[in-house]
From TrEMBL:
NCBIfam families documented for this protein: copper ion binding protein
CDD domains: HMA
The entry's keywords: Copper, Metal-binding
Residue ranges occupied by any HMA domain in the UniProt entry: 2-67
Record protein name field: Heavy-metal-associated domain-containing protein
Origin superkingdom: Bacteria
Gene3D superfamilies, per database record: 3.30.70.100
Length: 68
């Protein structure tokens, strides 16, 4: 198992959390997505390493941006 944490900007409500969780969770190999709304931290657990570009694309598809 691999775990990576990203910071997502622009999330303000539970709908935002659901959108990001759904898009990131659809990435092949992802087994769990945990979102902390107050900090914007998104922790992705996967069965194998996930490409950061895939996570970035999924977050953008949900309508948000990765910080940094």
């Amino acid at each position: 198992m691999t775990t990576s944490t990203y910071t997502v900007t622009g999330m303000t409500c539970s709908h935002c959390v659901a959108s990001v969780s759904e898009e990131v969770g659809a990435i092949d190999g992802v087994t769990e997505v945990a979102v902390d709304l107050p900090t914007g931290a998104v922790t992705v657990t996967s069965s194998r390493p996930v490409d950061d570009a895939q996570v970035k694309a999924a977050v953008e598809e949900a309508g948000y941006q990765l910080a940094g």
